[in-house]
Design brief:
It is a single chain. The protein is an alpha/beta fold. The protein is built from 11 helices and 11 strands. Helix 3 links the parallel strand 3 and strand 4. Helix 5 runs parallel beside helix 6 and helix 10 packs across helix 11.
């Protein structure tokens, strides 16, 4: 499949503390490095009650908003952990402060009961809550005053000013399950996925497009984002092992499964692996650096990997 010239390149903000939380100055240096590299976007993940230090995603995006002109987004906000009016207010504010350059990645979250217990939400309700939240957000971003009585949320009267533009804020639904893919085509503007190798992405995207057609939606109208983990290291095997251990500390799990999904090694090997994602038709490629030195990793990525990816899209070979 021919790579699309419209692919965008972004990076996840290093907000997790598996190897220590960045200072405010370091976080801004990371953003400045990405700006200099011409990254199209910065995104932040979401956890509220976690076993390692982690920065809250919406606050972090607000902090960096004045230091970049790139698109900012959540990848992904766990919808059921917050009331929809709060999500609408904060996301509307970010959209206003970024000149409409905010994107809301939204998902149900993983199987981590303590996150939901902390805010009094049963884990089994998270999918249906997410559906209702999206419906409420669409109304709050569009209508001057909203009253809503639903299964989970009772909103007698709410108004949101400033509201986003006519089309609201783009929502990218996260997940790989059948329910998540159905949510993408019925309620989302796009799909964001992690933990998918290129061949897995192709199979899942085919399911997504089939669902879109069955719901009367043009498959091409669903934008796709892939988020992958990268660890640049002179030795591929060592890099994969170090990246797996980094992710295992974050998820408090066995590192073996994570090693398979970590794109690791020297820049030429990492670039060749990431090109595979370009060739299966992603609209945006996000990287998260699975290691202790994200600024150094982003610098190497910008200098030695991004030119190869951009050259591939332009039909050039970068040596």
């Amino acid at each position: 499949m021919k790579a699309s010239p419209a692919v965008r390149f972004g990076a996840m903000l290093p907000t997790i503390g598996a190897s220590g939380i960045l200072s405010p100055e370091e976080l801004l240096r990371y953003v400045a490095t990405g700006n200099e590299a011409g990254l199209d976007s910065f995104w932040a993940g979401d956890h509220l009650n976690w076993h390692t230090p982690v920065l809250e995603c919406l606050t972090t995006l607000g902090f960096v908003a004045g230091h970049t002109r790139a698109v900012l987004g959540t990848n992904v906000l766990i919808g059921a952990l917050r009331h929809p009016v709060i999500i609408a207010r904060v996301s509307g504010t970010l959209s206003h402060l970024t000149g409409g350059q905010f994107r809301l990645g939204l998902g149900v979250g993983g199987e981590h009961p303590k996150e939901f217990e902390a805010v009094g939400v049963p884990l089994y309700e998270r999918g249906r809550r997410t559906d209702e939240i999206i419906d409420v957000l669409r109304r709050l971003w569009k209508e001057p005053q909203v009253s809503h009585r639903g299964r989970f949320y009772d909103i007698p009267s709410a108004q949101l000013e400033p509201r986003p533009g006519t089309h609201g804020i783009p929502i990218y639904v996260g997940g790989r399950s059948e329910a998540a893919l159905g949510r993408v085509v019925t309620r989302g503007d796009g799909w964001t996925a992690a933990w998918l190798l290129p061949e897995q992405y192709c199979r899942t995207k085919a399911k997504l497009h089939d669902l879109a057609r069955r719901h009367g939606r043009c498959p091409g109208s669903v934008e796709t984002i892939v988020h992958t983990y990268v660890h640049l290291h002179p030795d591929e095997e060592t890099g994969r092992s170090e990246g797996g251990r980094f992710l295992a500390r974050f998820y408090n799990a066995d590192p073996a499964p994570f090693e398979r999904h970590c794109v690791a090694g020297p820049p030429d090997i990492v670039a060749a692996r990431l090109v595979e994602y370009l060739d299966v038709g992603v609209n945006e490629l996000l990287v998260y650096f699975a290691g202790a030195r994200p600024i150094e990793q982003l610098t190497i990525y910008a200098e030695e990997v991004l030119p190869v990816l951009r050259g591939h899209l332009a039909g050039r070979v970068i040596r």
